[in-house]
């Protein structure tokens, strides 16, 4: 479904990505980890068209995404969240979802009088568990609820591939758990790539992990394989290795 080949990104001579290959199969929940500056966000930016790679190809369902505009990539079925949730505070939860859902629709369908809640919005509401808050303005939501709303807004656009950048950052333990369940559920009928630093979260919810380091793929595999890899332990030096990829002690 997604196939990156030899992706290179130079920022004024600085190699942020130095030849990344990444293959993600349909229906996978893939975690992307790596120390600060490893290139995780840059990789997401390349897939979504925010950053154009110096070289390489991004195959998605038979299309090469390189050089395409961001909105075109969204239309092809690729959606992303950012590290901080982007929601419209003055609008209600429902209005935010409705707006997001209309994003992929042609203009003529928006000009027709629409009644009630569309199926996509309803589904996004129930999946994220935000039904009770549907009529509240997004400005009053807690940090966790905002993140879920943003994920809901993404779902309302009906993407096939979702890219989530640190969805549990700043969340309480309970919120993390709920997010883990949400992501697991979403991955049942979508392909999902999650950038995440939180190792506890990874241990609980990740199956396949790709480790980036200094703009390259260091290793890939199951959580256990990656945790046991001495090279992974090494790049996380500075933190105790057990904090980074350890055994949960
Ligand atoms: N627009 C830019 N111009 C110049 N350098 C950049 C730009 N964007 C990112 N970089 C550099 O590229 C490298 C990779 O950054 P990136 O944000 O992709 O890392 P990351 O793995 O997402 O890190 P973090 O975990 O801190 O978010 C970093 O050294 C960063 O300073």
Automatic annotation (TrEMBL):
GO terms for molecular function: ATP binding; ATP hydrolysis activity. PANTHER family: CONSERVED COMPONENT OF ABC TRANSPORTER FOR NATURAL AMINO ACIDS-RELATED, HIGH-AFFINITY BRANCHED-CHAIN AMINO ACID TRANSPORT ATP-BINDING PROTEIN. Gene3D superfamilies: P-loop containing nucleotide triphosphate hydrolases (3.40.50.300). The keyword ATP-binding applies. The keyword Transport applies. SUPFAM superfamilies: P-loop containing nucleoside triphosphate hydrolases. Keywords: ATP-binding, Nucleotide-binding, Transport. Pfam families: ABC_tran, BCA_ABC_TP_C. GO terms for cellular component: plasma membrane. InterPro entries: AAA+_ATPase, ABC_AA/LPS_Transport, ABC_transporter-like_ATP-bd, ABC_transptr_urea_ATP-bd_UrtD, BCA_ABC_TP_C, P-loop_NTPase. NCBIfam families: urea_trans_UrtD (TIGR03411). Residues 2-239 form the ABC transporter domain. It comes from Nonomuraea soli. CDD domains: ABC_Mj1267_LivG_branched. This is Urea transport system ATP-binding protein. It comes from the Bacteria.
């Amino acid at each position: 479904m997604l196939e990156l080949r030899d992706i290179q990104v130079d920022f004024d001579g600085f190699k942020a990505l130095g030849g990344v290959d990444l293959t993600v199969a349909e229906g996978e929940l893939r975690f992307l980890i790596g120390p600060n500056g490893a290139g995780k966000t840059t990789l997401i930016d390349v897939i979504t068209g925010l950053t154009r790679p110096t070289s390489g190809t991004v195959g998605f369902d038979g299309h090469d995404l390189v050089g395409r505009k961001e909105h075109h990539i969204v239309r092809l079925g690729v959606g992303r969240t950012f590290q901080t949730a982007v929601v419209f505070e003055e609008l209600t939860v429902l209005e935010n979802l409705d707006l997001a859902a209309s994003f992929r629709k042609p203009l003529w369908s928006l000009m027709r009088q629409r009644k009630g809640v569309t199926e996509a919005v309803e589904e996004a509401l129930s999946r994220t568990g935000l039904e009770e808050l549907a009529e509240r303005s997004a400005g009053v939501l807690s940090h966790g609820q905002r993140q879920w709303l943003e994920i809901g807004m993404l779902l309302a656009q009906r993407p096939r591939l979702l890219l989530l950048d640190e969805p549990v950052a700043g969340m309480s333990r309970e919120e993390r758990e709920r997010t883990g369940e949400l992501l697991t559920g979403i991955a049942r009928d979508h392909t999902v790539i999650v950038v995440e630093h939180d190792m506890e979260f990874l241990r609980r919810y990740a199956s396949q992990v790709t480790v980036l380091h200094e703009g390259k793929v260091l290793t890939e595999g199951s959580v256990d394989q990656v945790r046991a890899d001495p090279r992974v332990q090494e790049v996380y030096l500075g933190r105790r290795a057990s904090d980074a990829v350890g055994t949960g002690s």
